[in-house]
Design goal:
The chain is α/β, with parallel strands linked by helices. The chain contains 18 helices and eight strands. The strands form two sheets. A six-stranded parallel beta sheet has the order 1-8-5-4-2-3, sandwiched between helices. A two-stranded antiparallel sheet has the order 6-7.
Length: 366
């Protein structure tokens, strides 16, 4: 077994203000990275700014984060942070904002770095310290060393590096209460995807599986309620947020499997939100890993307390109706991107490009 996660994590009501000293030690100035709407609506931006003011930490706010943030925007924000001589970067939001904050910390310390140098990890200077405040129950980016961005060719890529861990992260689940129903479901099935893929990763171990199982067990009831259009209460929101963190801790060791990487294709070309795009492929993955190792798959269902049919039914109940249609030629043209792909190889089953070809044809070619 092996586990490494250097981030100091605080959760609970008012955790930001209660643990303000964790921000003080990062420096006397920062750039706050967020989007234009959600961070403000959730109350997280106001809570952060009040805490920064109470610590006499000067700050500027850059609210240019969009969904699936492009590297180019992170370069721009990094230069703004560099010019402002920010001592650290503080990201507020869901996965897009937190992943962008990680990248911006790199560009702030290396303002002349370009996209190619970023992906090649050719960083002359270590990133600025990072603080993260989560406002969705989904990505678990608060506790991972991963940043997922969109490159100049409009392709999503993940980058993994220990220098991208946050120094400190805060998770007040009350900041998730304003998430719209669609965001709650997309983020929630992203948690399910993280945990399930982690469990069926070749890199899984006792620790990662414990995180994954707990994440799923916490998620199932709130997600079923959300899929039935029920309004979630504070306890359900808290459970989903805890599950999100646990899912992040699970993939921190294992990474993800093919549903995540193939899901990027749906997001890039059809605008499907990330969590939904990954979860669409989970039933196909579960079918194949069950064939590959029935005993291991059986242990998974025993541990999560659900049989395969009910678990797949829950996942599918969370997914929106989609009208994705592909041609065989389109599927054929996409296949090279999954040759020698790490997420495909990471799946605990005999998954190949040919397997992905079969799955795409069965789902989207009529």
């Amino acid at each position: 077994m092996y586990y490494y996660m250097p981030t100091r994590l605080y959760t609970g009501d008012d955790c930001i203000s209660q643990h303000r000293d964790a921000l003080r030690i990062l420096g006397d100035s920062c750039i706050v990275v967020t989007d234009k709407v959600a961070a403000k609506a959730s109350g997280a931006l106001d809570d952060v700014r009040a805490t920064l003011d109470s610590c006499a930490i000067e700050h500027i706010v850059w609210d240019g984060v969009s969904e699936n943030p492009p590297v180019s925007a992170c370069i721009e924000a990094g230069r703004i942070a560099s010019d402002a001589k920010a001592a650290f970067v503080l990201g507020i939001g869901g996965g897009s904002s937190l992943d962008a904050a990680k990248a911006i910390s790199v560009f702030a310390a290396n303002p002349d770095l370009d996209e190619a140098g970023f992906y090649a990890l050719a960083w002359d200077h270590n990133p600025l310290p990072i603080a993260l405040v989560g406002t969705t129950a989904g990505t678990g980016s608060e506790v991972t060393k991963v940043s997922v961005l969109t490159d100049a060719a409009h392709r999503k890529h993940s980058i993994h590096d220990d220098r991208l861990y946050a120094t400190v992260a805060f998770g007040d689940s009350r900041h998730t209460h304003t998430c719209p129903a669609g965001v709650t479901l997309s983020c929630g099935v992203d948690v399910i995807a993280h945990a399930t893929e982690s469990y069926f990763s070749h890199k899984s171990d006792e620790v990662s599986r414990a995180f994954a199982v707990r994440a799923i067990r916490l998620s199932c009831a709130p997600l079923a309620a959300a899929a039935s259009d029920e309004e979630l209460d504070a306890d359900q929101r808290r459970a989903l947020y805890e599950a999100s963190i646990l899912g992040g801790l699970a993939i921190n060791t294992t990474g993800t499997c093919f549903p995540h990487n193939v899901g990027y294709y749906l997001t890039e070309n059809y605008g499907i939100p990330h969590g939904f795009a990954s979860a669409i492929f989970l039933p196909a993955m579960l079918a194949r890993v069950g064939e590959y190792d029935q005993e291991y798959a059986g242990a998974f269902y025993d541990e999560i307390g659900a049989d395969k049919e009910s678990f797949v039914q829950l996942i599918e109940s969370c997914l929106p109706a989609t009208e994705i249609r592909m041609t065989r030629d389109e599927v054929d043209a996409a296949l090279p991107r999954w040759e020698n792909n790490g997420s495909v190889k990471n799946t605990r089953a005999a998954i190949s490009v040919e397997t992905i070809h079969e799955i795409l044809l069965s789902l989207f070619v009529r």
